[in-house]
Design a protein that fits this description.
Layout (H helix, E strand, L loop, with lengths): L4 H12 L2 E7 L5 E7 L1 E3 L3 E6 L4 H8 L2 E7 L10 E10 L5 H8 L20 E14 L12 E4 L15
Antiparallel strand pairs: 1-2, 1-5, 3-4, 4-7, 5-6, 6-7, 7-8
Length: 169
Protein backbone atom coordinates (compact mmCIF):
# COMPACT_ATOMS: atom_id res chain seq x y z
CA UNK A 1 0.00 0.00 0.00
CA UNK A 2 3.00 2.27 -0.30
CA UNK A 3 1.94 3.80 -3.61
CA UNK A 4 1.68 7.32 -2.19
CA UNK A 5 -2.11 7.57 -2.21
CA UNK A 6 -2.29 6.98 1.55
CA UNK A 7 0.42 9.61 2.12
CA UNK A 8 -1.57 12.07 -0.01
CA UNK A 9 -4.74 11.26 1.95
CA UNK A 10 -2.90 12.08 5.19
CA UNK A 11 -1.49 15.36 3.79
CA UNK A 12 -4.95 16.43 2.60
CA UNK A 13 -6.45 15.96 6.07
CA UNK A 14 -3.54 17.76 7.77
CA UNK A 15 -3.74 20.66 5.30
CA UNK A 16 -7.51 21.06 5.53
CA UNK A 17 -7.77 21.24 9.31
CA UNK A 18 -6.49 23.49 12.07
CA UNK A 19 -7.22 21.61 15.30
CA UNK A 20 -5.77 18.37 16.56
CA UNK A 21 -6.65 16.43 19.68
CA UNK A 22 -3.50 15.88 21.71
CA UNK A 23 -3.30 12.85 23.97
CA UNK A 24 -1.01 13.06 26.97
CA UNK A 25 -0.65 10.94 30.11
CA UNK A 26 -1.48 11.91 33.66
CA UNK A 27 0.95 10.97 36.46
CA UNK A 28 -1.15 7.89 37.23
CA UNK A 29 -1.19 6.85 33.56
CA UNK A 30 -4.72 8.04 32.86
CA UNK A 31 -5.01 9.44 29.34
CA UNK A 32 -5.89 13.11 28.91
CA UNK A 33 -6.94 14.72 25.63
CA UNK A 34 -6.83 18.38 24.72
CA UNK A 35 -7.79 20.15 21.49
CA UNK A 36 -5.09 22.52 20.23
CA UNK A 37 -4.83 24.79 17.21
CA UNK A 38 -1.80 23.58 15.27
CA UNK A 39 0.72 24.50 12.64
CA UNK A 40 2.69 21.83 10.83
CA UNK A 41 6.08 21.69 9.16
CA UNK A 42 6.83 19.05 6.52
CA UNK A 43 3.91 16.92 7.79
CA UNK A 44 6.02 15.64 10.65
CA UNK A 45 6.46 18.45 13.20
CA UNK A 46 3.18 19.64 14.72
CA UNK A 47 3.33 22.93 16.66
CA UNK A 48 1.02 24.62 19.13
CA UNK A 49 1.21 27.45 21.64
CA UNK A 50 0.20 26.94 25.24
CA UNK A 51 0.82 28.18 28.73
CA UNK A 52 3.51 26.10 30.47
CA UNK A 53 1.23 25.76 33.50
CA UNK A 54 -1.63 24.21 31.53
CA UNK A 55 -2.45 20.62 32.31
CA UNK A 56 -1.33 19.15 28.98
CA UNK A 57 1.90 21.20 29.05
CA UNK A 58 2.78 19.80 32.47
CA UNK A 59 2.04 16.31 31.18
CA UNK A 60 4.32 16.83 28.15
CA UNK A 61 7.12 18.12 30.40
CA UNK A 62 6.90 15.04 32.63
CA UNK A 63 6.01 12.41 30.01
CA UNK A 64 6.85 13.43 26.43
CA UNK A 65 5.30 10.39 24.70
CA UNK A 66 2.11 11.65 23.05
CA UNK A 67 -0.42 10.73 20.42
CA UNK A 68 -2.78 12.93 18.44
CA UNK A 69 -5.49 12.82 15.85
CA UNK A 70 -6.41 15.33 13.16
CA UNK A 71 -9.90 14.78 11.78
CA UNK A 72 -12.42 16.54 9.64
CA UNK A 73 -15.58 17.01 11.70
CA UNK A 74 -17.37 18.83 8.88
CA UNK A 75 -18.03 15.75 6.74
CA UNK A 76 -20.74 13.11 6.89
CA UNK A 77 -20.14 9.80 8.64
CA UNK A 78 -19.55 8.09 5.28
CA UNK A 79 -16.85 10.65 4.39
CA UNK A 80 -14.80 10.28 7.58
CA UNK A 81 -11.21 11.49 7.21
CA UNK A 82 -8.59 11.30 9.94
CA UNK A 83 -4.87 11.03 10.58
CA UNK A 84 -3.51 9.39 13.74
CA UNK A 85 0.06 10.10 14.90
CA UNK A 86 2.28 9.20 17.81
CA UNK A 87 5.66 10.51 18.82
CA UNK A 88 7.29 12.76 21.36
CA UNK A 89 6.51 16.34 22.32
CA UNK A 90 8.52 19.05 23.98
CA UNK A 91 8.59 22.72 24.76
CA UNK A 92 10.82 24.49 22.25
CA UNK A 93 13.65 26.06 24.31
CA UNK A 94 14.15 29.82 24.03
CA UNK A 95 17.48 29.31 22.24
CA UNK A 96 15.73 27.36 19.44
CA UNK A 97 12.70 29.63 18.98
CA UNK A 98 14.15 31.69 16.14
CA UNK A 99 14.66 28.52 14.11
CA UNK A 100 11.10 27.30 14.75
CA UNK A 101 8.77 30.31 14.66
CA UNK A 102 9.08 30.75 10.91
CA UNK A 103 7.66 27.30 10.24
CA UNK A 104 5.38 26.82 13.25
CA UNK A 105 2.46 29.06 12.37
CA UNK A 106 -0.29 29.18 9.78
CA UNK A 107 -2.12 32.47 9.46
CA UNK A 108 -5.48 30.90 8.82
CA UNK A 109 -8.94 31.16 10.38
CA UNK A 110 -8.02 34.05 12.62
CA UNK A 111 -4.66 32.66 13.73
CA UNK A 112 -1.50 34.69 13.58
CA UNK A 113 2.21 34.05 13.92
CA UNK A 114 3.75 34.62 17.34
CA UNK A 115 7.09 36.33 17.80
CA UNK A 116 10.06 35.01 19.75
CA UNK A 117 9.48 37.73 22.35
CA UNK A 118 5.86 36.63 22.88
CA UNK A 119 7.02 33.06 23.50
CA UNK A 120 9.70 33.85 26.08
CA UNK A 121 7.69 35.96 28.50
CA UNK A 122 5.57 34.80 31.39
CA UNK A 123 2.54 33.65 29.43
CA UNK A 124 3.03 31.38 26.42
CA UNK A 125 5.44 28.79 25.07
CA UNK A 126 5.85 27.00 21.75
CA UNK A 127 5.51 23.21 21.76
CA UNK A 128 6.30 20.70 19.04
CA UNK A 129 5.40 17.05 18.63
CA UNK A 130 7.44 15.05 16.14
CA UNK A 131 5.55 12.20 14.53
CA UNK A 132 7.28 8.83 14.70
CA UNK A 133 4.27 6.98 13.31
CA UNK A 134 1.32 8.02 11.21
CA UNK A 135 -1.82 6.19 10.17
CA UNK A 136 -4.63 7.33 7.92
CA UNK A 137 -8.28 6.41 8.41
CA UNK A 138 -9.45 4.25 5.50
CA UNK A 139 -13.22 3.85 5.23
CA UNK A 140 -14.46 0.33 4.55
CA UNK A 141 -15.98 1.58 1.31
CA UNK A 142 -12.79 3.21 -0.03
CA UNK A 143 -12.55 2.38 -3.77
CA UNK A 144 -8.91 1.25 -3.57
CA UNK A 145 -8.17 0.26 0.03
CA UNK A 146 -11.63 -0.59 1.35
CA UNK A 147 -12.12 -3.95 3.03
CA UNK A 148 -15.70 -3.48 4.19
CA UNK A 149 -14.47 -2.37 7.62
CA UNK A 150 -13.06 1.04 8.56
CA UNK A 151 -9.44 0.75 9.64
CA UNK A 152 -6.17 2.60 10.12
CA UNK A 153 -3.39 2.05 7.61
CA UNK A 154 0.21 3.19 7.97
CA UNK A 155 1.16 6.28 5.99
CA UNK A 156 4.27 8.40 5.73
CA UNK A 157 3.20 11.91 4.66
CA UNK A 158 6.56 13.55 5.36
CA UNK A 159 9.32 13.79 2.72
CA UNK A 160 12.32 11.48 2.67
CA UNK A 161 12.61 7.79 1.95
CA UNK A 162 13.56 6.81 5.49
CA UNK A 163 10.91 9.03 7.08
CA UNK A 164 13.38 11.78 7.95
CA UNK A 165 12.95 15.06 6.05
CA UNK A 166 16.06 15.83 4.02
CA UNK A 167 18.48 17.98 5.99
CA UNK A 168 16.83 17.28 9.35
CA UNK A 169 17.49 14.81 12.10
Amino acid sequence: MGDGQLDRMAREVIDANVFLVLGTSEPDGTPRVSPVFYGVHRYRDFYWVSHPGSHHSANVAARPAVSWVVFDSSVTVRETRAVYCSGTAREVPAGELAAHVGRAFREIRGARAFTVDELTGDALRLYVARAATCEVHVPGSHPTYGTGTDRRVAARPWPGHDGTPPGET
